[in-house]
Amino acid sequence: MNFSLHAKMNILGQLTCSLLLLNSLGFSFFTAHTSQNGIFDIGLVSISFQYPSSLFESVDLLAKTTNIINSCNENKDFYFVELCETMPSLQAGGYFYIITLFVLELCVINSALCLWWVCLGRSSGKYEHSHALSPVIYFITLICYNLLSTTGTNAKIIKEGYGMVYCFLIEILLLILSMHYYLVLKRIFANDFLILEEPLATENIKRNFSRASGTHSRGANDTGQSEDDLGLRPMSRRKSCSSSQAVQVDEKVVCKEIIEDLSGEIEKLMSQKNRLEDSTNSLKKLMESSVPDITIYQSNIEAKSFEIKTLKDIIRNLKEKLVEKDIKIKEYERDLSVNKALVQALNTNNDLMVRNLDEKERVLESIRNSGNFKSFDDVSEKDSKRDSQYRYGRFTDSTHAGTSIAHSDRESALDKQIKDQGRSMLYPEESSGCKFQVLSEEIFCMKKPQEYEKIIKDQEELIKSLKDKKNEYKLTIKTLQKNLKDIINDRDRLADDLSSAKESLRAIEDLYIESSNKFVKNQEDWNTEKADIEYSKNILARELEALKSRLKIQEEAMNAEISEATNKIESLKDKLQYYEVEHELAHSEISRLKDLQDLLKADLLDKSSNPSEEIRLSPQKFSKLLSLTDPKYENSLKDLDKSFHSMIDEKDDLRQSCADKDNTIIELSEINQKLSEKIYELQAEPKNSEKVLDYGRSSMQSENSASSSFLSVQEMFVVESISDFDVRNNFLLDKVMRMKKEPPMIYANLWKLMEGLMEEKAKVDKLDLALKRKPRHIAEFTMDFLLSHYGLQSLANKQLKAMTMSLEELNKVNHPYGVLFCRLLGLFHPRPISLDLSVYLLAVQHLFNAIALSNKATKFANHYEILQYGGHASIVDVMELIMKVCKNNRAVGERVIFSIHKESEYKLEIALLKVCGTMAKTGKKPKHFFDLLDNNSTNSLDYHEFVDGIRYTLGIWITQEEAEAICAYIDLNSNGVITMDEWVTRVDFNMYMQKIYAKESLVTKVQVLNAFIEEFELEMIEDYNKLRQTIKIRSLDQIEFENYMRMVEPCLKDHEIIKMFEDIRSIERTKNVSPEGFCIAVLKNKLGGYGIGSFDLKDIASI
């Protein structure tokens, strides 16, 4: 008999009884006949009756029991007077029946579920008391209800109605189902399922064989046992043992092969782990080897600075010498000017003396001719003495005065000398003229001739002395001219020396300026190279830390898998030993059964000899015995086959997991190799370090993640740096690490818990934004939510531990929804979502839940498939949602909508659904929209008119490329014009109305949220690139940092700028700040409109 069929029949009967019991709530259980010919149909909570009326023959009424009791208390109506006394007992009996009915419902459903689990093979069938409990409970309920309801002074008017008969029929059905369970299902269950638990014991076989031998000794006519019992167990095991022998031998070989394969794979994994550790050590050595190069650069800079200092000292000494030479040259020039003035004065004096001598000779000749010699000689002698003394005194005084003044004060002496020379030039003329005039008057006045001779002699002597003086003056003039020439030569020589010194000084200055420029340039290059090297070193250190963390996680996962594989191997070894023992037992049984078979064949086939008394069987009965098979051996063989297949499945799973780990290790080795090549390039060409860190998206390969496939490594570091939450300092992880190990949370419960968390956080954020308060981070809110959700702190801590373990597993397998939760909470992911973006995303998911379709599916697998991605909604509804959210920025909304289905293979169908589905939801016909798009009433649409009409006239947010693809699809003859016939032919609104909620047009919540995250990260990268292009220098000191900050945000205060500068320096560990650090600081603090993008909380708060 088939157990499954009987179980399903019993379950169907249980469910039918459950529905009938619920239906009994509306039946009338009793009928009351009063003395006023009143007939009342009494139910659980209501009473129906006919009320006599003067207008009509009778009025059918339905009233609640409580209302009738109230009317009885208020006005003792004769029509209800007999029923009023019994109403409290009726109400009490109804309440009792309703309460026990729900208990009975639970009992019936429990019995049906238990039987269903037994049918599925997931229960042992031990919980069977509910099958017998249901009819007993219902029978007691009916008896108690009848007794409670018929108690009272006027209970005699109450009689059982058809509802009570209906309930007793349900009781009979429950009794039949209970008897069916105990008499049919339990026997079949014992025969088909519980027999699998009995072992293959050799003692039972020996006992059965001895019993069979004893039976044969009694004779064929003995009726102590039936013929089926004769030797049934020993002979029926022949086929099962022979078949199990082959299966166990094959299974033993397969188990050995599995163990060998697993040990080989474990050795491969250990070798790969060692290779990864070697590569990590090599990276450390390369980082340590770059330290001597930095010390060499510093020593070279110190040597260059010392050389520049010495050059500065030499230039300063040369300048001092040049200044001294300039002073000497000025002194020489002043001496030369004084000497020139003296020479000129001497020349003028010489000319005057010559003129005076000529004048005196002329006077003497005139005197001689006149004859007055004596008086003339006396007068001339006196005059000559007086004139000579006067001239000599004037000359010596003027010479000594000019020389002393020239040595005391060069400039004043020159002016005084000119004045003195001018006077000396005038005084001799005046004096000589006066004397000669006086002399001439005296000569003409004197008439003594004896004096003329004496005067002439004196005049001759005077002339002679004057000639001597003239010669002396000439010699003096010659010496002075010679000295003047020497001075001029010295001056020219000094001028040449001065020019050569100036040229050498100018050359030294040029050399100094050139060396200073070179030094400054070298200093800037060194600072730039040093900053680049330190920045690259920091980046490599961060990458190394990330690799270490990933390697640690990978190592832990590999160790866990290795331990799990080792445990499985040990369990397989135990199973192998068990199967070997079973094989030996089966082999011994087979050999014994073969001996028995040979003995039986010998007795049956030996016709000449008489059969023994112990074994007397006909050939037909012998063949029948050979054909029989014990069901216990069949079930054991089935169990072995199932275990064998399960082992094969486990082996395939292990191979798949090992293959995945191999791929991950290969990716890590490739990243390792790229990092080592970068380090080698940095060491080989330090000046070209900026080429190593290319800030474009094509510089390095992205991570193997669904949420970061569009970002390069540099861009991912930028996105990671601008986050306002540090993953390494997450207090949730700190709280979890101190707790005991808990089993991971079931994923279905995790999804429900996280959905509730996001909904509650969205409500709190909406309230905070309305009150203009800063929202809390979701990681801080999580602990309060768990405490309010579970009520106890210890239980909340346990659930937090289980939740984090489940999220860690989901993050490892790169589950989209699990990765999103990790990024929101800042757990296990290097790029957590910032606070403002998380508030924005939670508001979007709240709006998505409003348009999401119902998650109730017929199968649990389908329900879980929807639940693990946050639910799903139609792309048309999602497009309308994004149009509402991004109403101020259409370009961003179009990119987000396209990003949701950019990986889909049916892009054209989705674009058509977005356009035609939106049109179909309005309930209008295609001709109406064609007329709206046809602006010039030509009954045709060109591509430009169609695209602009869809995007702007109808306001449907699709990209230009999607609109053009739709045009090409509708244009059947490809002439560039869409006619009404083509439009009606291609567009069927009924079909697209059905496709709106088809499976192909549904998108999940995680797709929508990841599209917003992708758009936000792309906008942050664009802002970063814009800022980076404005900075043309390699590094920023504090002054340059302040200037650039003022350009970005003029309202910043000095202490805020200094704090940001010091924070970036502490992060980068450099003297100055790199341009990358400046850009990240601007984005992180949202200065100058950067770092916000299109995701403003004011816009989402207004929706």
From TrEMBL:
Signal peptide from the UniProt entry: 1-26
GO molecular function per UniProt: calcium ion binding
Record InterPro entries: EF-hand-dom_pair (IPR011992), EF_Hand_1_Ca_BS (IPR018247), EF_hand_dom (IPR002048)
Polar residues: bias regions: 212-224
Keyword hit for Membrane: yes
Coiled-coil positions: 259-335, 452-511, 537-582
Keywords of the record: Calcium, Coiled coil, Membrane, Signal, Transmembrane, Transmembrane helix
Regions crossing the membrane: 95-120, 132-149, 161-184
Chain segments carrying region Disordered: 212-244
Location of the EF-hand domain: 921-956, 958-993
Protein name (Swiss-Prot/TrEMBL): EF-hand domain-containing protein
Species of origin: Stentor coeruleus
